Amino acid sequence: MSSVAEFPATEPAFGLYVHLPFCVSICPYCDFVVYAGADARGPRNRIEILVDALIVEIGLRARSGGTAGRADPARRPLSTVYLGGGTPSLLPVGSLRRILDAIRTAFGIAPGAEITLEANPGPDERGDPAAQAAAGITRLSVGAQSFAPAELKRLGRRHSPADIGLALDAARQAGIRSISLDLLYDVPGQTLDSWADGLERAVSLGPEHLSLYALSLDDPDAEGLTGPGGDHLPPSAGARRWRKRARPEQDDDRAAAMYHLAVHRLREAGFLGYELANWALPGHESRHNLGYWERRSIEAVGPGAHAFDGRVRRWNAARLDGYIAALLPGGGRQPSLPPGGEEILDSTSAAAESLILGLRLDRGVPLTAFLEPPFMDAFDWAVSAGLLEETGDTRVHLTTRGRLLSNELFARLI
Ligand code: SF4
After folding, report:
1. What CA–CA distance (Å, rounded) separates 286 from 298?
2. I need a surface site. Which of 68, 149, 194, 404 has the fewest CB within 10 A?
3. 251 occurs within a structural domain
């Protein structure tokens, strides 16, 4: 199955993901590992103890040499660091510095590395971009989600449309040169007009990158992801009720129209749709996220974080108590790696995964990737259904229709 592997089966960590699981409040649709309220703010917040635990995990992961626990003599400095969450911009800058210093000491960070911070635009959430830039942040990913006040309210967001512009202005003044905005579509109550207006307002703010996500209302409990070792937390009863009310208000046809509109408008504005949900001005693609789609080795720390070393997928359990107890055991005991799980991919699963992730990218995959017998039928079906097309350089990529119906093709490849 080696014909689909465009990247080496294993490699030293290319990037590092750090999960910072704190938000001021929890949005009812959110499935990320998040702790809010007194855990995130006030005298009993758990930010500093989490940072202490993270620093221990960073050291342990660097010494263990990767997700498979191999010592790694060929380690090289990281090309990307991604501080995601949660709302990492909530962290005091001193805590961000401590984390980045620990990463530098344990892994090294290459000159010119991309160091992304996820931020929310609200005045009580965005932190101090000048201090964040001085700490080494080179790229900001801002959770705008919508420019319609009613949609923001319905989604449980804390910011106003005006806050989004203010957050971008502050980041620009701080010298941050690469800014991404996240927007949501297929939101209950959203119309094609409000989506078009939101896109215009987003483009007018001059971000270098946009991520557009269809609102997803999955049930992590039903998927069996929320047990003691699971990588998700159970949604609250209120979040469940919210999702139940919201689901009937979603509409596949409206979502498809919104996606089409974005494809055309963002192309006009000079953005390249380099991945199914991501558009960038030339040179501003997310290097860290490209690492996932290219199946590069990405180390990961923090509750619920997922890592990959080219062969093994590993995850930490979501629960903060167990995470902290393992890494900061107290009583003179040695820290241990936090609870979690791992999956070793066999060659067939790895080939399917490589193909699916490669097809998410606009450059697609080599035609030879489909010559493996399990994939030939899916290829014929997808070409006849107008989902895939060949380019002149013997590569295959999704058409716009294929982007919209990609899950149908991906299900046939697994
Ligand atoms: S701000 Fe983001 S991470 Fe925090 S609860 Fe809302 S969606 Fe989840």
Report:
1. 14
2. 149
3. yes
Q: Same structural domain for residues 21 and 102?
A: yes
Nearest atom within ligand 1 for CA of residue 156: 6
β-pair partners for 266: none
Out of 259, 293, 327, a domain closes at 293
Q: Whose CA is nearest to atom 3 of ligand 1?
A: 86
Contact 229, 341 (CB under 8 A): yes
Protein residue with least CA distance to atom 6, ligand 1: 27
pLDDT at 356: 96
- pLDDT digit string (tens) for 12-36? 899 999 999 999 999 999 999 999 9
CATH number at residue 183: 3.30.750.200
- Is the residue at 304 inside a domain? no
Residue 325: both structure tokens together: 């107890």
Tokens 């490209």 belong to which residue? 290
Best mutation site among 41, 87, 142, 236 for ligand 1 pocket (most ligand atoms within 8 Å of CB)? 87
Mutate to test the pocket of ligand 1, among 20, 22, 34 (most ligand atoms within 8 A of CB): 34
Higher pLDDT, 372 or 90: 90
Q: Are residues 283 and 382 in the same domain?
A: no
Average of per-residue pLDDT values in the chain: 92
* Whether 270 and 160 share a structural domain: yes
| Nearest alpha-carbon partner for 129 in 168, 95, 182, 164 | 168
Could you tell me the residue range of the domain that residue 381 belongs to? 346-414
Q: Is 196 contained in some domain?
A: yes
Number of domains the chain is built from: 2
**CA 183 to ligand 1 center in whole angstroms:** 13
pTM score, whole prediction: 0.94
Mutate to test the pocket of ligand 1, among 19, 20, 22, 23 (most ligand atoms within 8 A of CB): 23
| Residue 72 clears pLDDT 60, i.e. is over it | no
- Residue 379 shares a structural domain with residue 241: no
Q: Which residues line ligand 1 (CB under 6 A)?
A: 23, 26-27, 30, 32, 34, 85-87, 120, 143
Over residues 114-137, the pLDDT tens digits come to 999 999 999 999 999 999 999 999
CB atoms within 10 A of CB 206: 11
Ligand 1 center–CA 392 separation, angstroms: 42
Residue 298 lies in a domain: no
Contacts 24+ apart (CB under 8 A), 219-225: 219/243, 220/31
Is the pLDDT assigned to residue 343 strictly greater than 60?
Answer: yes
Same domain flag for 367 and 281: no
Looking at the fold, whether 102 and 228 belong to one and the same domain comes out as: yes
